[in-house]
Amino acid sequence: MGSDLSGRAEAFGQLYAEHSDQLERAVRRRLGHGAGARDVVQEAFLKLWEKAIDAARLTPAYLHKVARNAAIDHARAKTVRRDAVRDLAELAIPTSPPTPYDAMASREALETVERALEALPSRTRLIFLLNRIHGRTFVEIAGGLGLSERAVAKHMARALSVCERALPRD
C-alpha cells in the first residue's frame, strides 16, 4: 500500500510540475491579478488528491476546469469576505460617540458570544466559522467534512440558536 501511495504522489508531483505554471497563468488571468494564483492552483491539486483521483486520468482540459472552478471559488470567497467587512464597518460607524457604557456593553456581548461559540461541540463551531467567517456554502462544507447538507444546516441552526440565546434582549 505504501508503494501505491508513493507512486500516486510521484504521478501527482509530475502532473503538477508539467501543468502548474500554465494553470497559474490561467488563474491569474481569471482573477485579474497575480496574488493568490499559485495558492489557488495548489488548492485545486489538493482537492484532486483528496478525491483520490488517479493522476493518469487527469487531462490538461480537466485540470484547467478544476483550476478555473478553484479561481471562481477564491474570487467568490474574497467577495463574501469583503462584503462582510463592509457590512461590519457600516454597523460599527456610530451615529454619536459611544458612551463608556455602550463600549462596555458591546465588549461584554462579544465576549458572551465568544464563550457561547467555545462551548459548542467542535464540529458545530467549525461549521459555524466556515460559513459565517470564511463564507463557505453549506454544499462546500458538507463536501469538505463528509456530511449531508441537512446535517450542516442542523449544526448551523444549533450554533445560531446558541448565539441568539447568549445575547441579552433589548
UniProtKB/TrEMBL annotation:
Residues of the RNA polymerase sigma-70 region domain: 15-78
Keyword set, alphabetical order: DNA-directed RNA polymerase, Sigma factor, Transcription, Transcription regulation
Coiled coil spans: none
InterPro entries recorded: RNA_pol_sigma-70-like, RNA_pol_sigma-70_dom, RNA_pol_sigma70_r2, RNA_pol_sigma70_r4_t2, RNA_pol_sigma_r2, RNA_pol_sigma_r3/r4-like, WH-like_DNA-bd_sf
GO biological process, one term: DNA-templated transcription initiation
Domain RNA polymerase sigma factor 70 region 4 type as annotated: residue spans: 111-161
UniProt entry tagged with the keyword Transcription: yes
Source organism superkingdom: Bacteria
The protein, known as: DNA-directed RNA polymerase sigma-70 factor
Gene Ontology MF annotations: DNA binding; sigma factor activity
Any GO CC annotation of this UniProt entry: DNA-directed RNA polymerase complex
NCBIfam families recorded: sigma70-ECF
Keyword presence, Nucleus: no
